[in-house]
């Protein structure tokens, strides 16, 4: 299942600027909207002045990047930037969102309302309601239809991988215990690192690998404490089947994260989220109709269950809406590493809601994971992971959206007066 996704990523990652026009449907002017300030008119309809605007923009980005990267820096320079702390803050927010969705799911299962496919369907529906109108307003119906024609199959694959990652991960917990499923989820990080290295041209430094391993070590401490206290769920009904489902779900998640990082670096976030919602509704709707039909018959339905479903839907929608920011400002690897703290927050919720006790090893695990994230960025570029290698040295093939290196370079060029004020408005 991985091959259809990997191929387009490799093709576009090595494409030239001219070829990218076909993928980006033209890319243009600095007067654009907040998330896509470099949105061009189609090349065949563009006036002669748009070429000057494009060249001026490229010069501004190059000057901005050069100035940012030439700053004298210490090994801890990136740790003092606003971007680093924003990534940490958003990452912990995402971990809390995952914890909340798990909590709501536990409430639902406790009253025999076990409908995993339908729960996720609600999230995709909400994403569609929020982001599709925004996309249609920004692009217009004609351009939106053209995107479906040219890139619809890529968005379909992205949605399919995401839906199946959710489905098989939830399914795994029906057969194996929590400890096994969580340990196998480390495989998602391995998938991200391997795919990013081979297909996106990402090159990891030894300290970055060390940071990832330190985070995994922290997670290992947390899981060990679960095992010692017997809170890992005990034995499963079919451990082998459950472990295989968890492994498959983690693989889907890893591929999805890499593919989505590639997408949001080249296209507006609202566009990616809208198509993820539209195709997610179609794919997950079919699965819910097939696999959740019997579960509906024996499920409990009342106002409390409805509240839990709404809470699950809102938290998951917020999660999906924030993920692109971490993928732009950081990377798929940073995203997965941040989510390792979700188990720590789950314990905090458990002590308050379910009356569980906190083992003394939990704070140690949390500190190790946070330290691992810090080590990951030690001696890194002032731009962190926001500068994507597959977009070219001057990020020419990328969108200048919120959180991107291209956006930072343009802002720096204007702020420092490295280019004429009207360079992008010709």
Automatic annotation (TrEMBL):
Transmembrane residue ranges: 84-109, 115-134, 155-173, 179-199, 206-224, 244-263, 270-290, 305-327, 334-354, 360-378
Subcellular location: Membrane
UniProt keyword annotation of Nucleotide-binding present: no
Chain segments carrying region Disordered: 1-50
Membrane topology of the entry: Multi-pass membrane protein
Keywords recorded for this protein, A-Z: Membrane, Transmembrane, Transmembrane helix, Transport
InterPro entries according to UniProt: EmrE-like, SLC35_F1/F2/F6, SLC35F_Transporter
Highest taxon of source: Eukaryota
Biased composition (Polar residues): 14-31
Main localization category: membrane
PANTHER family in the cross-refs: DUF914-RELATED, SOLUTE CARRIER FAMILY 35 MEMBER F2
Family named by the database record: Belongs to the SLC35F solute transporter family.
Protein name from the UniProt record: Solute carrier family 35 member
Protein's organism: Humicola insolens (Soft-rot fungus)
